[in-house]
Amino acid sequence: MKRFTYVLLLTICCSFIYQINAQQKRIYIKYSGFAKSSDNGVQEFIRDDTQQIHFIHEGIDMYCDKAIYYQTEDFVEAYGNVSMKQGDTINMTSKYVEYSGITQLAFARGNVVLREPQSTLTTDTLWMDRAKQQAFYKSKGKVVRDSSGTITSQIGRYYMDRSKYQFVKDVKLVNPEYTIDTNQLDFYTETGHAYLFGPSTIVSETSTIYCERGFYNTNDDTGYFVKKSKINYDNRIVEGDSMYFDRNRSFASATNNIKVTDTINRSIITGHYAEVFREKDSVYITKRALAITVQENDSLYIHGDKLMITGKPEHRITRAYYGVKLYKSDLAGKCDSIHADHKTGLTQLINIERFGTSDPFSTKRKPILWNLGNQMTGDSIHLISNVEKEQLDSLKVFNNAFLISKDTIGDSDGFNQIKGQRLIGLFRDNELYNVDIIKNAEKIYYSRNDDNELVGINKSKSGSINIQIEDNTITIISLLKQIDGDIFPESEFPKNARQFRGFDWRDEERPKSVEDLFRGEPPLKLPVIKGLDEYVPQAEFFDDELMARMELSKKKVFIEKYSKENQTFEKPTKIKTREISKNLLKEIDNFKHKVWQKYDVKLIQTQIKAPDNISVDYLIKRKGERDFGYIGQNTNEIEGNYKFTVWLKGKGSVLINLQEGAGDYTRYNFTSVKLSNTWQEYAVEGKKDSDNNPLRITISNIDNNEEIYIWEPKLVKIKQ
């Protein structure tokens, strides 16, 4: 017996606990204010002077000034200063909210503000799915995060469990330092991390960044960009497969397929790794580094292991290091290092002796230039350009100058040679036309007659030698301050004496094209860039799972309705019918719009507050030219039961009508109202049979003595 009693008590307790839990899953009315119930299970609540109406459901608290609660559907319509709080993390305020205890789906409209610890979202309409912990808008929204700025978009979704926003369409992030425009943006409010997808730009006073996929840390102003990434620093454009950016350091680096364009000095450098320091106006680039100086008819290409461009646009310096080669259609060169001053037009080819290295190039090979068939070497070589004409002006070879050209006529395998202490060459239209060998000049030259027959081999010494060149052919050789010399028949000139000491013919090293600049280098292995994950499009907010939950709630008007917000009531409105549609009227806030037909009345927009204490209402007055006036709107409705409501105040009496919008303008029903100086909501209901003419609503019988303030017109289909 005791055991039976114990089991019975346990069963009763469990049943009681189950009932409490089941009851807790429904919307709980913690404070109701003034309440009124109807026979169909609908309750209406209006706040009192002490506090707002308070609902609780599954971890949320909702407050409002007025509410209608549908007990069967466990559904609330909340009006006026509505707020929903979820713990201490989510707080949403608006003028109007619909909430289903079955689907846990909320719809908010009118000055919607959603706050979480790191950001604030404002929009006009917002859906919140508490089951999935997501909020969604599609009519433009704005998110403010203090350290990041303001983000706006046409469509957005907030994932509460991840503190993540996903913005779509016309996305703009505005920060005091920069502005981001993109197609899609994923933003994490806790970290300030932003992920950009699609064509995107980041614009500031000092730079413009473009990419089609990227990451930006709004907390420390660093970014990582891939897919057609580009940074424009004033007059320098940096492009690459992958780019890193640090705004605070004015620094950027790029990897793979890099191109840096100097728009002022008309130069381009390419490579596969680069570093750019904007404030220092410097660029460092390596891995197949190539500098291109663009000229009118020809361009000069310089390649080295490393390239560095420094200095302001008006005085840029290009430096190339180690194994440097240069190429131009009529000029080529090779040296250890190059220093080019774009302002003065001086390009220096230098060999730097690197001690402790076995590289023969750095210790033995001298800088070398090839101009057409001529090879010039020396301890150092200077090329001087005319920066205004963008043409070569002259060249200078310092110490151990050596000029060699092959005697290509007949079967000769000889070489014309001139050497001395220094060499000075002059260019005309980028062609070498005059060469002077100065101090301790010597020559070995294969002399030929007019029929190109070999006369002999001339070997001479002199203080200096002048060479005249025409059509790339030596025409005159003049020995100045000659010491000695003679012409020897070829048979009498020993072969071992036909080359000066230090002779070094290096034609096999000569670059004959841009591609030749990279000849002999090992294959380049570029790093694999993983980059950023592809953009994952937003799933449908109203997916099958949500629609199934809505079906269970039997309250589809929850999504379909278009309810105006924040209504203040002097007395409870008697609930006679159920609305089964959204507001069927158009331009409900702009009575001056052409959809509102006006007959002998004029509209004046006032500063008087409407019932919501926010909106500005309109004053309707007669023009006084006809017997009466009216204002109305045709709809697309053909058949059904309808209810027309409107808020009015003023003086005089008017008719509120439901009527036919064409034909004989049959009046289906009307309400005669006498206006007062306080706002009241007036309604008229009627049935329209199908007559192929549209339904029309009007406020009529406006005479000359009446002043009517109007707000919140609403036409809905109803079910008796």
From TrEMBL:
Can the keyword Heme be found in this entry's annotation? Answer: no
Q: Where is the Organic solvent tolerance-like N-terminal domain?
A: 50-183
Keyword Transmembrane attached? no
Q: What's a Pfam family this protein contains?
A: OstA_2
Q: Which keywords belong to this entry?
A: Cell outer membrane, Membrane
Q: What is this protein called?
A: OstA-like protein
